[in-house]
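USER: Write out one fold?

ASSISTANT:
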Amino acid sequence: MIHILENQNSLLSQYIAEVRDAETQKDSMRFRRNMERLGEIFAYEISKKLQWEEKTVTTTLGEANCKVLAQQPVIATILRAGLPIHQGMLNYFDKAENAFVSAYRKHHKNGSFTIQVEYASCPDLEDRVLILSDPMLATGASMLMSYKELATHGKPKHTHIVSILASVQGVEYLKKHLLTDKFTLWLGAVDDELTAKAYIVPGLGDAGDLAYGIKL
């Protein structure tokens, strides 16, 4: 299942426009806040697909039958660019356990790169719902490797993969390697082009640098 949220008019489109805008990007605090807002929107939409149960709540005037999550998800992100989205999701899934993966592109002198995964912090995922986010889904390789690293901590019963911007190539890569009835892909928008260096066009640039400053 693939959901592209920009296909329907909502405030998500406004926030995506701002994170893409080169002038607005000059304000890193604004960029981070918009990424956080987008994380909140994705969390809300995903919550509609989770399991709920009835709970009786005692008020000052009586009892009310309410619906609450039957099980808290585990929310995960890829360091460092995914941190603002993760915070947005944590604002809504405020009782969720958390996981983090350090995955990055290691560039080689011939212009190619490989994906390096050096660290993962994760609770038990066996039979849990996993929500894994990264702002950009370019080739899809980082997302796939990050999922496989997390899956060493248990097999989730369902995984929701979240990216604000994706390339057609990245979507096809995950469809080939991951997307079954146990996976759902949530995207803000999909762009058609990848550069020779695997950057999404028009994209928005390097989300990690825009949020936290240029890395060495």
User: Anything to note?
Assistant: The radius of gyration is 18 Å.
